[in-house]
Structure formats: C-alpha cells, structure tokens
Amino acid sequence: MEQFKGQPRLPKFAVPKRYELNLKPDLTSCKFTGSVAVDIDIVETTNFIVLNAAELTIDNRSVSFATKTSSKVFEPKKVDVMEDDEILVLEFAETLPIGVGVLTIGFEGVLNDKMKGFYRSTYNHKGEKKNMAVTQFEPADARRCFPCWDEPACKATFKITLLDVPSELVALSNMPVIEEKVNGDLKTVSYQESPIMSTYLVAVVIGLFDYVEDHTSDGINVRVYCKVGQANQGKFALDVAVKTLEFYREYFAVPYSLPKLDMIAIPDFAAGAMENYGLVTYRETALLFDDLHSAAANKQRVATVVAHELAHQWFGNLVTMEWWTHLWLNEGFATWVSYLATDNLFPEWKIWIQFLDESTEGLRLDGLEESHPIEVDVNHASEIDEIFDAISYRKGASVIRMLQSYLGAEVFQVAIFIYVFAFYNQRSLASYIKKYACSNAKTEDLWTALEEGSYEPVNELMNSWTKQKGYPVISVKVKEQKLEFEQSQFLSSGSSGDGQWIVPVTLCCGSYNVRKNFLLQTKTKEFMGFSIRNESGNASSNWIKMNVDQTGFYRVKYDEELAARLRHAIEKKLLTETDRFGILDDSFALCMARQQSLTSLLTLMGSYREEVNYTVLSNLISISYKVGRIAADAKPELVDYIKQFFISLFQYSAE
Q1: Which of 10, 65, 630, 644 is the most exposed place for a label (fewest CB within 10 A)?
Q2: How many CB atoms neighbour CB 113 within 10 A?
Q3: Quick one: 456 and 477 in the same domain?
Q4: Which residues are catalytic?
C-alpha cells in the first residue's frame, strides 16, 4: 500500500456513480454512525480500491464489494486508513472484475467542534443550550463524514437517509423529503436522489428551526430557515433569493436544476456562506436582516451574499471545476455576477461603485511582491485552504469584469450560455457516459467559449492575467498629436517587476460618448484616435480618461498635461463617481510607491473640494488621514500647512 502514500490525487481505476448514504447522528453524545453503499465502475485491472476517509473509524467487518452481474462478494484482506493522506485503502486477494459493482462500508465518527466535516453547532432555546448537526464539506471535508471520492471531478448521485432523528427537529438535505417515518420520539427521514454533483456540495442540517417560504414563477419552492423566533428576519433574504433565481434563469438561459432551494442561518459557521446544492448554509449575519435594528450596509451584504451563493447553483454546482486549481473561476465569477444581480434588483444602490472596494483590495494585495497568481497549482488537499483568499475572490471578480467590459455584455452573456448549456446537456447524458467527469470544466473551457463568441484572443489575453501574479501601471503621455502608452509591473514597494500583460484598454476623450477600446499587447504603443488638442491648445479641454468606469484591473499614470485636464474635469463634475474614485486611488497608490510626488497628489486632491458622493468622499477622507500621518512623521514642518489644506478640502462637504 506504500504506492498510495503522498499521492496528490486518488487513482482513477475506480469511478463512483451513486452513493446510498445512511447517517445516524446522536446530538446528545455528539457522535454519529453510518453506512454507505457506493456504485462504482471498475475501469482498470486492480485489486485495490482507494478512496478518501479522515477522522472516521471503519468497521472492517462491514467492508465488501459485490458485482451486479453475479452473487460473488469480495471481502478485503486488508483495510488501511492512512491518516496523514486522508485515504482509505482496501486491498483484495483477487483482482476485481471490470464493470459496475457496489462497495459497502460501515463507519462511525464524532460531531466535532471544528466547523468542518460533520460538526455540531449550539444554540439556545427557551433558556436551554442545545446542539444541532451541520455539514461543511468544502473544500475536502466530506471525507470526515463518510468514506468517498472527495474530489470535485468525482461526481455522482446521492440518496441520503437520516436515522433516529428526534421527531421535533427539522432535518434538511440537498433534496426534498420523500418519506418520513416517526417511531415515538424518533424519526427516519429519506430524501429524493440528487442529480450528479461533487461530494463537497452534499449537505445535512438537523436542528430546531422556523422558516418563511415563497415560490419562483416556475414553481421552485424557496425557504429561509433560522432559529425559532427569528423568522421575520429571513423575509428580505427570501425575497432576494426568489428574484435572483429568476434573474439567473434568464441570464444563464438554463433553469435552476433542483425542485427546491433552502437557505439556513447557522450560529457557528466558519465561512460567510456555503453554496451546497439546494441547501445553502450561511453565517447568521449574512442571511438575516432586522428592519428595526440592522444597518443599511447589512441589507446590502445579505443581498450580495445571497446572490453570490445562488450564482454557484449554476457556476460551480451545475458546472463544476475539474480540480481546485480552478477555484478562482468559481469564486471570482460568483463574486462578479452577484453584483450584476444585485444591481438588477436594487439599481438605486449603485452597487458597482461599491464593487470598487473589491477591486481596490485586490489591487492592494496584488501589488505586494509576496502575491501569487490567481490560478495556483494545487498538489494536495492540504493546500486548498490557502487559495480561498482575496486574490481568488476579488482579483478574480475584477478580471472577469474587465473581460466582460472589453468584449461587451451581450457577447459575454451569450458565451456564458454556451458554456453552461453545453455542460448542462452533458449532465443529462451522464448515465450513458462512462467517465461522467466530463461535466466538470477547466478555466480554459470558459475562455474557449468566449473566444468562439467574440473572435478575440481570450485564451492568450486571460492567461496573462491568471497565470502570473501582479498587474501593470499604464503610463500615458501626449506626444505631438498622439498618445503614447507604456506598461510596467506595479509594485507598492516602488521596485520594478518584469511582468507583461495583454491589457484591455478603454479610454474616452472629452465625453463618455467618445470611446475607444484596444488591446495593449506590448510594452509600448502609440495611439492616434482622438483630437488631442483643440485649436487654442487649451490644456483643460479634451480631457482623456483611461480605464473608463474602472473596469480594468490596472493603474494609470498620466503625464502632467493629461493630469491637469482631468483635474479640470473633476472640478467641473464631468466625470462619473467611479472614475473620480479611480483617479484618486491610482494617484495615491503611485505616490505611496514613489512613482508620483506628494505635491501632485495634493494638487489632485484639491480638485475634490465639492465632492459629495459617499464612496468617493470616504476614500478621500481615508487618503487624507494616511497622508497626514505620513507627513507628520516625515516632515513635521509641513503639519500645519497640510492641516489647513485638509480643513479647506472638506469645508464644502461639511456644510
């Protein structure tokens, strides 16, 4: 069995098709027992079956393999749980027959307090502390609940039954209940068989809950579960969920694929939320909203988190990454499209300017020399948690928005439809496909769909953003009647990097109606598409703004002539709030990286004296505080001058 030690992924000679899973949790002792019968296809000659298991006690006497074409039962001569590698190795005396058979395993485990695997959460009911049972399997913790092929490409169907559940408790799983047998104080709950899905999306929750419910226009039952007495706090999320499901049904041109959607607030929950297929779990603050006591910011958080998790029902659950290397696409896409959905439901929120918080944090982190590429090779399950970070989520969302902006919303949406619908069709044929992992996808599959729909070099373009860390600063200057562009890697330390990108450049001149798009594929480029100067040579006319609406993941450095024009445009209120935010943020970052003088930054800040937009003003205040603190340390003699400057700067907004 030594040959299986330290292997990054499971061997491929056995492929799971269907799980019949029985679980019997004991909420008093915080233990559980269970059994699983897995239909597996032996596709290569072997006398081993290797799958994942961790922190489980395997009942060796219960382990067997039986073919479906004969009555012969194979019992392993050796059962080895390799804890370091989190795998279960079954060695048989005979070679297993090629074809489909059933692997049966009995096991037991502990409802842990680590908020992963099959764990316990606590809540108070009528002054009494009670336990609930919850699952959290992403990225690789289904193996802590039952022996399984715990990799996203190993999709299968799941038939789940919960045994000896206290009859007063609510017992939920991915699918609707098909049978509930009550025997005194206990009940057995059986659920419909699931569609094909990955193990990390399997979910079970058992506890005492209230709920509110509604239906989509095409009959999907939607519920929000929460602690007893809090049902009213679930109404806002319920309304958002119903409308978001309908928005995604239209956007993806594919209906939601399950008969119900449950969303549930969990008191002890490590992540913000988890997109389990049909049973989405949330931290309470990410799902519940109290009209009387919650802040407006909480309302927006609930809306975007719900929209994010429901996006995964298509992009992640229906079409699943082939391996964790492609996690960024799952999370980056869901983050981006959650803002698209929220903007559709609440246009008055102007949510895209708040998206700048996502991109700015991504820019800040990715400007560090210690950053990493969006797409990271994952060689072992122990490495997966490291890539659930702001680079995957925030930079990922930002580069997807950049691509959508460059290609155009309609072209992008059509390509997404091709991508999702192609795999949706493959899923419907899954029972006929020997290696049903074809309903998993890699990042390149999406780029191919987008390339075919746009006739743009999407693969090459996006590889320059996903396979290397960092991003560029684009320096632009006027040279006669031309604009001259030069890209270099931006590092917040002020040092230079050697990165080079294919940059989707957007710019406008004097008006948002006069726009140009092009790809900057080299270090330098000259562009002659605008009238750079008018006849009088007035430097304040024909302002030029690069990275229109801040949809690009890069910074811009203007020469003094172009900077002067932009200052004038800001003072005359000719620019959108997103562009005003971006110009200020870029200038501050360049100043901190010693690529621009403090004088230039302060001169620019003076153009914002009449700023009233909350997000822009908030950034202006934050930058002012940082500049003041730095100046006080470095140039104490300038403190009084800068203090007076800031008093003058904020006098208008304070009135």
Answers
A1: 644
A2: 11
A3: no
A4: 309
